[in-house]
Every structure is written in structure tokens, then in C-alpha cells.
Specification:
By secondary structure, the chain is mainly alpha-helical. Helix content is about 80%, strand content about 0%. It contains 9 helices and no strands.
């Protein structure tokens, strides 16, 4: 049965890449249901995350939050892939931030950063991608000191990874905050 679930997951992912969110949502829902029926927790978590991302694509953030919350809960219980859990928690934080649930978003970002900073195998890009929305949240909440610190770290990480768009965005944020324009591009 795992093959059938994995085929659904693959098709759903393909539909999402092809920008066919309705088709992806249908495949994800079927993968979630089949994973539940067969108590296939790893594929259930993957399917919930895929369904949540597709819900975000469709601007259904409340649905995405519910799906990510279940995936996070299951991921915490399994406790076998802290980096995947960090990624999922970060996305839950993004959804909560978009829903205006700032305190809950902050908790998610703090948890994700704890995982990323605590795992030697963590990809610096994942760390940068977790710091970026946290910097945005800090700025939205008026914590300019916190925002500045995060934007500086984001900029350094993106610079070290040669991701110019990230360097530019972080530099613009720092310039907007009146702090630094060392990497500002014209």
C-alpha cells in the first residue's frame, strides 16, 4: 500500500509544480486519507505538509494552519527527523504570521531556529529561510533591534551562499531600518 501512497504523493507534487493546485489538493487529500487508513505516519506527515502547502497556494491559510498543526504534532511524537520538523514548524509560523497570530508565529520561529541551530547537518539555506520571516515578524512588531540582528544574519548567510536576491532584500531591510547598507545593490 505504501507504493500507492507514494504514487499519490508524487502526482500531487507534480501537479503543484505544474501550478495545478486543485489537482494537487485532490491528490494530497487522497494521500492523507490512505495514509490514515494504513497508519503510515511518515507518509501521513508528508501528505499533510503537501496538503498544507497547496492550501497556502490557494490562499486558504486557516486550512493550511490546521494541516501543519497536525503534521507538527505527529512529527514531534515520532521525533526522528528534527530538520523536517523544523521545516514544518517554520511553515506553520509563516501561516500564523499571515493570519495575524504573531505570538504563535514567534513561538514557531523560535522552535525552528532552535532545531536548525542545534543540528550540525542543518543547511545554512534552511537557517536563512527561517531567520528571514522571523526578521519580518520582528519588524512588524516594532522590535527593530531584533529585526536588525536577524536581517544582518540573513544577509550574511545569503551572501555566503551567493543568493543575491536574499542579500538585496536583507540589505534593503537594513537600509529601511537605518542600520547598514554594506551590501546594497543598485
Amino acid at each position: 500500500m505504501n507504493n500507492a501512497i507514494e504514487e499519490l504523493i508524487a502526482r500531487a507534487g507534480q501537479h503543484r509544480r505544474e501550478r495545478k493546485p486543485a489537482d494537487a489538493a485532490r491528490e494530497w487529500a487522497e494521500a492523507v486519507e490512505l495514509s490514515r487508513q494504513h497508519m503510515d505516519i511518515p507518509n501521513l506527515v508528508r501528505s499533510l505538509c503537501g496538503a498544507a502547502q497547496t492550501a497556502r497556494d490557494l490562499a486558504r491559510n486557516r486550512e493550511a494552519a490546521e494541516l501543519y498543526e497536525e503534521a507538527v504534532s505527529l512529527g514531534r511524537n515520532q521525533n526522528n527527523d528534527p530538520l523536517f520538523l523544523a521545516h514544518t514548524v517554520r511553515h506553520l509560523g509563516d501561516v500564523r504570521r499571515h493570519l495575524g497570530q504573531h505570538e504563535a508565529a514567534q513561538s514557531c520561529y523560535e522552535e525552528a531556529l532552535k532545531f536548525y541551530r542545534g543540528e550540525p547537518e542543518a543547511n545554512p539555506l534552511d537557517l536563512a529561510n527561517a531567520l528571514r520571516p522571523f526578521a519580518i515578524l520582528k519588524e512588524e512588531l516594532g522590535d527593530l533591534r531584533g529585526a536588525t540582528a536577524f536581517w544582518r544574519e540573513v544577509r550574511e548567510l545569503y551572501h555566503s551562499l551567493a543568493i543575491d536576491a536574499g542579500v538585496v532584500e536583507a540589505s534593503q531591510a537594513l537600509a529601511r531600518l537605518g542600520k547598514d547598507s554594506r551590501y546594497t545593490h543598485s
